[in-house]
Amino acid sequence: MVEPKKEDRKKVIAIAGKGGTGKTTLTAIMAKILSQNGYHILAVDADPPVSLAYALGAEPKKTVGEMRALMIEDPNEKRRIRDKHMAEVIRDELLIDAGGINLLVLGQPEAAGCFCGLNDLLKFGIESLSRSYDLTLIDCEAGIEQINRRAISSLDLLIMVSDQTLKGIRTAGHLKKIAEKYGVIGGYQSGIVFNRIDPDMDDLEELTAGIGLEIWGRIPVDENVALYDRTGRPTVDLPDDSPSVVAVKRIISRLGLLSIEQGM
To answer: Which of 9, 195, 206, 217 is the most exposed place for a label (fewest CB within 10 A)?
Structure first.
């Protein structure tokens, strides 16, 4: 597979699925591999528990949600940044350098009340900032519609992550419908990645029939991931020959982002 040309590499990828299926693990490993292979990465932690920050070995600082609250509550804060482009504000005050991967943490969803103008301004800033990166990876919370409202409306790839349960598969199909209903735009492709799959699991095609999602990959049970989670080590520190990393390299190759040889 030929490496994508530089001008063709700007993409926005959202990773969604039922809670606990491994969305953050997949996002972190993708960021690790692609960053190591020359991609300028913006990772967006859109899940309120901010798990992606820890998976990338970073400490969350001020979040987009916290900045939003300050702008609502403090007139001086609003005046301080009023003459700046919102993308510049977000870049200078919210971005975290996670080992060469730039990380933006959205934090908690909006509080009660309608601040549509401010919400749109922040979203505009995130979308504008995203255009300066080769690749934007969004670790979604459960509701994909939140991404459309809080971060970015246009996607290139929507990856649904599921375990090998029927509940996880049905949730993936449901989220695909939500993405369509809530106006996520762009000629995006959507597919499903199965995580923590047993070696003898051979009926995934049968289970996914009818939900409209192509199977883009399978990630096996990886004891290294469990060990790193248990001991608090960042996911990005997983060795390159760890089963989950090897599997994600194949997924990235299938998506046309790197060849297998480059990912090695």
So the answer is: 206
